[in-house]
Each structure stands twice: as structure tokens, then as C-alpha cells.
């Protein structure tokens, strides 16, 4: 029996491959199927191994059975041989007996034995044939493939069944045979008994005859010679008979032994038969078990095949339906493509036509291009020429417009007044102390942001300025009002912003501010940087700064190497009439960081130069001079604007408090310079022919920035505290006077007779007699100004003299 070849599946195993639960479609659930397949494979492998083992066991059993059969056949052959020998001996014996007794039973027995012998031979041949057949089947089985193994097994099983059947039949036959043999043996025994009986009778007869003979001999002995002779004859005969008897007895003995042997053989054969029957029963049980196993396997196989078939059908159906759907889609696509093709064909024709024409055009293109380029060049040249001439014209017009704009702007500024006066009231601070003295003496007009009222010595005095910032006004709000002035510096105007007021009124706060809340200085420079940046496309700008202070009419450079050195203001030697300060350091700045560095540097210099900064700063004028130089790249126009940011010395009346020595000198200098500034502003605002710039270092230094179409802003700082009301009054009067100078053709010719000194300002207190305001001027007073002016208590020391 061949072992199942490894690597190939038995049909049975293949059947099991899909057994169990219904297998899903691979496309839907690939992993469970693979797992199931793997599991089935493993199971099949086990099954295969088990079957192989079974087959091997069967082969072994078969071999054992074959060897048994061979042994049995050998034994049978030996028995047959023995029987043959026995038969031959018996035949001889019978022949001899027949010759002796002429018995026919022995002959019959012999015939039977011969026939038996013959039958046994036949049987043996049949067994041999069976063996051969089995071997042949084995050989045939070895060629079986895995696919045929099951069939082979089934076939073998059938064969085994057949063999078992045959063996059964044979067994029955053998049983019959044994029975027959037994019968025959019984007959033989009977016959032997008969022959023994006969012999006994014969012996009896012979012994009787012997006795008769002996009696006769004895009777005859009694008779002389004759009797002797007879006796001798009888003795002789008797000896002969005795010899024959002995022989017969020995033969009989021998035959009995033979029978005993035969019986032994028979017994052995019966035992063999029984063991054969037992083996046959075992084989039959095994065969039945195999049959059952095969039946079960077959059933399982059929079941699995059915499941597989079902799944196959289902998969085919699904694939078919899918294929149908896909086919449908493909058909639809095809139809779409066909229609597209049909519609595309004309388009293709048109495209081909277009392509051909394009090809022609491309061929002709270089020529066309050259021609076009030629004409284009000519056209472009012409256009450039035209553009150039238009440009020239535009430039001319632009310059004219620029002039016009400047003129208009100047006119506007002239009309508005290029000197503006703002008031800023600081909040009440801790320094103001507590009690009635620290109460605010300043109130504001809710409807007019240019008016403020001061309660002084129980009387309310009202002032009208260009703008009033209440204590809550932020640095940003203040700067918003001044930023137009700052930006005009970029356009080439000179600008001056002064912070005026008594010490502690907030001048430094407005101009410098704090690091977290900067004042006009830093904001102005930031604005300048951003404006310059926005104009960078057309303009190149350079911004530089100088920081100086005027103390006791001495000008010092706070950015210089020797800040204590006094600088002089000189006329430019080029004859332009311009002033300059030799040795004044000018730092070019690019960013706010640069500015901060410059301020820091200036501050350090100022600190090292004085023992008490607060006191010193309140008695000197601090100047930040920003110069903005611009170049219009398109026109080549150059502009220079100067922004002068001045933190003036304290305007308080120190001189009156009986100060002496340096303190008095300081006070006089301050007084003089502030009066000079007032004079200059007044002269400018009233368009006087002579402006007394030279009366102080400050006005002389700022001459350029105060005259012409320059713009000036006076930020008058006041403290609202009741205790400062006198100083506040003075400051506001100063502001009012500066502002109240009328503009216009008449005032242009007006002449400053005298500007009140600080002391005089103090004297102009409300309620004084002989007050007449400059509103008496024949200018163009506004109705609002007139109404306010009526309320004002002005000194009337200004005299406008028509030219
Ligand atoms: P000045 O320079 O006129 O002598 P300061 O600028 O030094 O006066 O101001 C004096 C004090 O008042 C400072 O502490 C300053 O911070 C404060 N101060 C001035 N103006 C304001 C304001 N608008 N808001 C808040 N505090 C102010
Ligand atoms: Mg100050």
C-alpha cells in the first residue's frame, strides 16, 4: 500500500477545506478566509498524516496476514506432504492388507484421501492466486495519485470486503471440509474398528483353530507316528500362524499410531482454523470500522463538496452580477465615448484645420514677427518720444502745481495763523499737597475746547486759546493735534514747538514724557520715520538730530564732547543770511532706537554738568533740533525742514521773591529770554517788519525756524492747583496775548511797541483798570474772539501801529 505523498491533498482533505461555516467572498472578508484556509490546511495535514498512519498500519497488518497466510500455506503444504506420505504409506499398507485380506474399504479410503489431497492442492493454488492478486493490487496501488487515493482506498476496501467474503466462504468451505474430514476420519475409525474387529475375529478364529489344532495335536499325540507327524505339521503351521498374528498385531499397532497422529493433525488444524476464524473476525471488525470511517469521510466529503459547490455557485453568481453591472457601466461609457467621439470628430476636423492654419502662420511667423517688430520698434520709439515729451510737460506741470500747493498752503497757514497757542492743564498731583490750596482752580467749557476758566482770588477769568487740553487728555491726544506740524517738516517747513509754563506745570512731561508714555519728542521722531518710510519710493530722506541747552544765555551742545563749551551762533559765510552754530553736533539717526540712544547721551551730559538736575532743567531751555533733508528722485527737488522741540525754562517769577546772586541772575536771564520769545512771536504774528530775534540766544538760534513760512506752536502748561493760580494766570495771559495778536494786512504793518515783562504780566491781573485789549485793532476779529475778549482782562500795553 503506498503512503500518501506529502505536499498533495487527498480529495477527502480538499473536501474538508471548505467545510464548516460558509466561506465569505475573498473580496469582502479576505483575512478570515485565509485563516480558515490555513486552519483547514493544518487540519487536512493532520488528517492526511492520520490516514497515512492508518494505511501504514493496514499495510503492516496486510503483510502480517500475508506472512500468516504464507506460513499457513507452508504448514498446509507440509501437512499435505505429510498426508501424502501418510497416504502413500496407507496405500501401501492397504495394498498390503488387501493383499492380505483383499479389503476394499482401504482402497476407498485411499481414493478419498487422494481426492482430498487434490482438493487441498486446488485450494492452495487458489490461495496463491489470491496472494498474487493482492500483490498486484498493491503494486497497482503504488501508482495511485492523491486524487485516486480515495478511490483506491474505496476499491481496496471493496476488495478487502470481497476478500473477507471470500475468506468467509473459504472458512465455511474449510469448516465443511473439516467436517467432511472428521466424518471421513470417523468412517476411517469405524472401518479401522471393523477391521480390528475382523482381525480380532480372525485372531479369535485363528486362536480357536490353534486351540482346535492343539487339541487335535494333543489327541493325535496320543496316537503314535501319524499323530507325531500331524503334530509336527500342526506345530509348523501354528508357528507360521503365530508369526502372522504377531505381524498383524504390530501392523495394527502402527495403524493405531497413525490414526492417533491423524487425530493430532486434525486437532492442530482445528486450532489453526479457530485462530484463522478469530483473525477473520478481527479483520471483519476492522473492515467494518474502516467501512464506517470511509462512509463518514465520504459523507463529510460530499457535504463539503456541496458547500463548496454552493459557494462556488454563489461566487459565480455574484461575479456574474458584478460583471454584468460593470459591463453595463462599460457599455454606457462606451456609448458616451462614442457620442463624444462623434461630437469630437467635427471638433477634431476644426482643430486639424486650425492646426494647419497655425502651422502656416508659424511658418510665416518669423517674417511677420520681423515686420511687426520693425513697425513696433518704430511705434515704440514714437511712443517713447511722445511719453518723454508728455513727461516733460507733466514734470513742468507738477513743479508748477507744487509751487502752487506750497503757495496755497502758505496762504492757508497765513489765514489760520502760523503761530498757534495750545494750553494744557496737568492733573492735580501729590506734589500739590492737600487741602484747599490743592483744589483745582481751573474749569473748562463743555461746549468749547478752546476756552478755560481760572478762579483767581475769588474771580473767574476766562481765556480763549486755539485748543485747551484738560488734565485727562492723553499724550496721544496731544500729539494728534501737533502731528500735522511735525509732518510739514518733511515737506521742507521749519517748525518750532515750545513748552511754556511755570516749573512743575508739565512742560517736560509734554515734551519728553515718560519711558512708557513718551511725549511729543519721541512721538514726533517716530512719526517722521514712518512718514519717510512711506515716501521712500520717490524720496530719499536723511534725519539728523542735535540736542542743546541754553542756560544763562549760553548755548551748550549736549551731544558734544565738551558740553560745558559755549557755542556761538554765526551767519553763514556764503552770504545767504542763514545762521549756523559751529561745533554743534548733529547725529544722523535711522531708527527710534538711535533716537533713544541720542536722548540718553544728551541726558547723561546734562546730568554730569549740573548738581541738581531738576533745578537746573527748570532754569534752562532744552532744545531738540531735528533736521529732515529730502531729495525727490524723480524731480531732483531738495527740501530741508527743521523741527525744534523746546522745553523752556520755568516761567515763574523768581526775581520777585527777593532772590540774589546767581539765582537772581538766572531769573533775569530766563525772564529776558522768555520776554524776547514773546516779542518775537508777537512781531511775527503781527507781521512786523522787524522781528527782534537777536534779543536772546533762543530766538536768535531759532530765527530760521520762526520766520518766513515757518510754523510755531506754543504749548502753555498750567497747574490747576489753587496755590499756583497766580502763575497759571500769568502763563495764560502770556498765551492769550500771543494768540490775540490779530493777523491780517493791517497787523502786518503793526509794530511791537513793547512786550510785557514777566513782572508786567503779573501786574495785569483781572480787575485792573485801564484795560484795553488788542481787539481794538482794526483787523478782522472773529465774533467768538470778540465775545471772549470782552470777558478778558488784558493789559492793553500792546500797541498796534498802522504803517
Ligand atoms: P515741568 O517740566 O514743567 O517742570 P514736569 O513735566 O516735570 O513739569 O511735571 C511735574 C510733575 O507733574 C511731574 O511729576 C509730571 O509727571 C507731572 N505731570 C505733568 N503733567 C502731567 C500730565 N498731563 N499728566 C500726569 N502727570 C503730569
Ligand atoms: Mg521740566
From TrEMBL:
SMART domains: KISc (SM00129). GO terms for molecular function: ATP binding; microtubule binding; microtubule motor activity. Residues 765-786 have a biased composition (Low complexity). Residues 757-803 are annotated as: Disordered. One of its GO terms (biological process) is microtubule-based movement. PROSITE patterns: KINESIN_MOTOR_1, KINESIN_MOTOR_2. Keywords: ATP-binding, Cell junction, Coiled coil, Cytoplasm, Cytoplasmic vesicle, Cytoskeleton, Membrane, Microtubule, Motor protein, Nucleotide-binding, Phosphoprotein. It is a peripheral membrane protein. Belongs to the TRAFAC class myosin-kinesin ATPase superfamily. Kinesin family. It comes from Pavo cristatus. ATP binds at residues 501-508. This is Kinesin-like protein. It is found in: Cell junction, Adherens junction; Cytoplasm, Cytoskeleton, Microtubule organizing center, Centrosome; Cytoplasmic vesicle membrane.
Amino acid at each position: 500500500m503506498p503512503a500518501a505523498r506529502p505536499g498533495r491533498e487527498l480529495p477527502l482533505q480538499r473536501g474538508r477545506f471548505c467545510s464548516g461555516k460558509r466561506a465569505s467572498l475573498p473580496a469582502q472578508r479576505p483575512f478570515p478566509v485565509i485563516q480558515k484556509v490555513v486552519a483547514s490546511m493544518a487540519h487536512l495535514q493532520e488528517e492526511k498524516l492520520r490516514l497515512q498512519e492508518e494505511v501504514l498500519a493496514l499495510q503492516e497488518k496486510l503483510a502480517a496476514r500475508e506472512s500468516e497466510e504464507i506460513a499457513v500455506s507452508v504448514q498446509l503444504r507440509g501437512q499435505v506432504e505429510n498426508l501424502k506420505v501418510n497416504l502413500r504409506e496407507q496405500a501401501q499398507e492397504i495394498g498390503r492388507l488387501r493383499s492380505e485380506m483383499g479389503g476394499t474399504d482401504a482402497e476407498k479410503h485411499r481414493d478419498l484421501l487422494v481426492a482430498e489431497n487434490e482438493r487441498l492442492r486446488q485450494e492452495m493454488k487458489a490461495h496463491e492466486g489470491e496472494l498474487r492478486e493482492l500483490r498486484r493490487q498493491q503494486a497497482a496501488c503504488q501508482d495511485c495519485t492523491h486524487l485516486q487515493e480515495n478511490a483506491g482506498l474505496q476499491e481496496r476496501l471493496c476488495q478487502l470486503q470481497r476478500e473477507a467474503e471470500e475468506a468467509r466462504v473459504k472458512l465455511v468451505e474449510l469448516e465443511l471440509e473439516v467436517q467432511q474430514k472428521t466424518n471421513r476420519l470417523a468412517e476411517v475409525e469405524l472401518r479401522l474398528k471393523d477391521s480390528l474387529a475382523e482381525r480380532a475375529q480372525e485372531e479369535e478364529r485363528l486362536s480357536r483353530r490353534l486351540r482346535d489344532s492343539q487339541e487335535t495335536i494333543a489327541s493325535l499325540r496320543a496316537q503314535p507316528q501319524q499323530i507325531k507327524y500331524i503334530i509336527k505339521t500342526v506345530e509348523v503351521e501354528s508357528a507360521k500362524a503365530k508369526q502372522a498374528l504377531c505381524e498383524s498385531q504390530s501392523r495394527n499397532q502402527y495403524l493405531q499410531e497413525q490414526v492417533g497422529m491423524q487425530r493430532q493433525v486434525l486437532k492442530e488444524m482445528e486450532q489453526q482454523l479457530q485462530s484463522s476464524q478469530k483473525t477473520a473476525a478481527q479483520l471483519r471488525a476492522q473492515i467494518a470500522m474502516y467501512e464506517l470511517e470511509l462512509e463518514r469521510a465520504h459523507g463529510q466529503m460530499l457535504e463539503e463538496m456541496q458547500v463548496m459547490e454552493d459557494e462556488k455557485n454563489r461566487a459565480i453568481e455574484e461575479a456574474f452580477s458584478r460583471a454584468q453591472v460593470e459591463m453595463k457601466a462599460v457599455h454606457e461609457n462606451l456609448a458616451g465615448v462614442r457620442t463624444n467621439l462623434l461630437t469630437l470628430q467635427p471638433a477634431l476636423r476644426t482643430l486639424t484645420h486650425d492646426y494647419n492654419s497655425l502651422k502656416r502662420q508659424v511658418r510665416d511667423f518669423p517674417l511677420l514677427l520681423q515686420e511687426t517688430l520693425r513697425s513696433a520698434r518704430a511705434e515704440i520709439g514714437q511712443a517713447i518720444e511722445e511719453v518723454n515729451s508728455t513727461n516733460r510737460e507733466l514734470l513742468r506741470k507738477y513743479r508748477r502745481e507744487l509751487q502752487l500747493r506750497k503757495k496755497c498752503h502758505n496762504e492757508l497757514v497765513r489765514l489760520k495763523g502760523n503761530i498757534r497757542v495750545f494750553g494744557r492743564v496737568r492733573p492735580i498731583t501729590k506734589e500739590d499737597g492737600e487741602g484747599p490750596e490743592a483744589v483745582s482752580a481751573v474749569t473748562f467749557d463743555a461746549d468749547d475746547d478752546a476756552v478755560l476758566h481760572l478762579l483767581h482770588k475769588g474771580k473767574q477769568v476766562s481765556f480763549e486759546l486755539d485748543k485747551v487740553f484738560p488734565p485727562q487728555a492723553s499724550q496721544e491726544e496731544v500729539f494728534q493735534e501737533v502731528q500735522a506740524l511735525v509732518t510739514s517738516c518733511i515737506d521742507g517747513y521749519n517748525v518750532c514747538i515750545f513748552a511754556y509754563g511755570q516749573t512743575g506745570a508739565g512742560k517736560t512731561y509734554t515734551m519728553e514724557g515718560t519711558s512708557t508714555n513718551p511725549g511729543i519728542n519721541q512721538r514726533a521722531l517716530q512719526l517722521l520715520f514712518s512718514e519717510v518710510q512711506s515716501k521712500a519710493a520717490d524720496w530719499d530722506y536723511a534725519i539728523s538730530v542735535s540736542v542743546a541747552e541754553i542756560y544763562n544765555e549760553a548755548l551748550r551742545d549736549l551731544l558734544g564732547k565738551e558740553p560745558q563749551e559755549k557755542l556761538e551762533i554765526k551767519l553763514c559765510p556764503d552770504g545767504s543770511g542763514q545762521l549756523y552754530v559751529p561745533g554743534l553736533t548733529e547725529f544722523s539717526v535711522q531708527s527710534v532706537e538711535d533716537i533713544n540712544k541720542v536722548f540718553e547721551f544728551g541726558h547723561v551730559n546734562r546730568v554730569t554738568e549740573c548738581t541738581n538736575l531738576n533745578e537746573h532743567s527748570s532754569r534752562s531751555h532744552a532744545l531738540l533740533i531735528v533736521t529732515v533733508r529730502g531729495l525727490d528722485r524723480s524731480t531732483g527737488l531738495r527740501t530741508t525742514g527743521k523741527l525744534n522741540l523746546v522745553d523752556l525754562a520755568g516761567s515763574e517769577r523768581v526775581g520777585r521773591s527777593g532772590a540774589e546772586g546767581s539765582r537772581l541772575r538766572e531769573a533775569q536771564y530766563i525772564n529776558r529770554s522768555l520776554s524776547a520769545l514773546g516779542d518775537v512771536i508777537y512781531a511775527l504774528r503781527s507781521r512786523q517788519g522787524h522781528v527782534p530775534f537777536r534779543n536772546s540766544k533762543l530766538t536768535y538760534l531759532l530765527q530760521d525756524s520762526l520766520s518766513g513760512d515757518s510754523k510755531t506752536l506754543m504749548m502753555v502748561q498750567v497747574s490747576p492747583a489753587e496755590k499756583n493760580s497766580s502763575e497759571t494766570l500769568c502763563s495764560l495771559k502770556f498765551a492769550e496775548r500771543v494768540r490775540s495778536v490779530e493777523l491780517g494786512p493791517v497787523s502786518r504793518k503793526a509794530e511791537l511797541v513793547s512786550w510785557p515783562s514777566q513782572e508786567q504780566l503779573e501786574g495785569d491781573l483781572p480787575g485792573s483798570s485801564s484795560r484795553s485789549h488788542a481787539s481794538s485793532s482794526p483787523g478782522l476779529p472773529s465774533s467768538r474772539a470778540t465775545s471772549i475778549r470782552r470777558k478778558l482782562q488784558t493789559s492793553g500795553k500792546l500797541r498796534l501801529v498802522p504803517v
